[in-house]
Amino acid sequence: MLEEIFNTCEEKMNSSIEHMQKEFKTLRTGKVTTNVLDHVKIDYYGTPTPLDQVGSVIATDATTIVVNPWEKNLLKDIETAIQSANIGVNPNNDGDQIKLFFPPMTVDQRQETVKQMKGMGEDAKVSIRNDRRHSNDKIKKLEKDKEITQDESKSAQENIQKITDKYIAKIDSILKEKEAEILKV
Fold first, then answer.
1. Are residues 94 and 159 in the same domain?
2. Which of 88, 92, 58, 95 is nearest to 74 (CA)?
3. What is the CATH number of the domain that holds 60?
4. Is the pLDDT of residue 28 over 80?
5. Which value, to the nearest 10 degrees, does the dihedral of the CA atoms of residues 151, 149, 161, 15 take?
6. Which residues contact 112 (CB under 8 A, 6 or more apart)?
7. Does residue 88 surpass a pLDDT of 80?
């Protein structure tokens, strides 16, 4: 029973870290990736649709992304969606495709990106602390229902704290690594 609580807690904490790393992909580092357009959606016949489902999105080099829609009548909609997404560049529509030219990142932009990244890391830590609280609540309920002893409850809560510390340290290590990557020119 306690083992099940520990396993569930670890799974949830692991998914918090995975979510944080998925969010990191939307951040811009020195080399531009198509992930900066992940949150851009266009109105495709009344349905908000991601760009990669209405055309090809390719990073042609370290500073350029090309969006080539499958239907040319979507060019204007794609251009408008990219402008309103405020990703830091203006789309260049040549009537055939849309090109996004990203200038090299300035030191201020890199520091702003690091700030965003740390916010994402803090959100993941909050999520992990919530997972800890939920697990401890389950353990306390088992103790209250006389299914485990007070000593078992104390030991189990200490184990949950060790798991929490492990995942918080993992987040700190990932943040430090990512910060070095972003600040490297």
1. no
2. 95
3. 3.30.1360.40
4. no
5. 160
6. none
7. no
Pick from 52, 77, 101: which residue ends a domain? 101
Helix (H) or strand (E) holding 179: helix 150-183
Helix (H, G, I), strand (E, B) or coil at 100: strand
Let me know whether 113 and 63 are in one domain: no
State the DSSP H helix or E strand holding residue 92, giving kind and residue range, or none if neither: strand 92-93
Domain extent for 58: 34-101
Q: What is the pLDDT of residues 124-136, one digit of tens each?
A: 999 999 999 999 9
Considering its fold, how many domains does the chain have in total?
2
The last residue of a domain, from among 101, 134, 155: 101
User: Can you tell me the mean pLDDT for 15-31?
Assistant: 86
Q: Estimate the crossing angle of helix 150-183 against helix 2-24, to 10 degrees.
A: 10
Q: Which residue has the tokens 């070095």?
A: 180
Complete DSSP assignment for 34-91: GGGGTT-EEEETTEEEEGGGTEEEEEEETTEEEEEESSGGGHHHHHHHHHHHT-SS--
Give the pLDDT of residue 185.
65
pLDDT at residue 35 tops 70: yes
Tens-digit pLDDT profile for residues 136-172 = 999 999 999 999 999 999 999 999 999 999 999 999 9
CB 95 within 8 A of CB 73: no
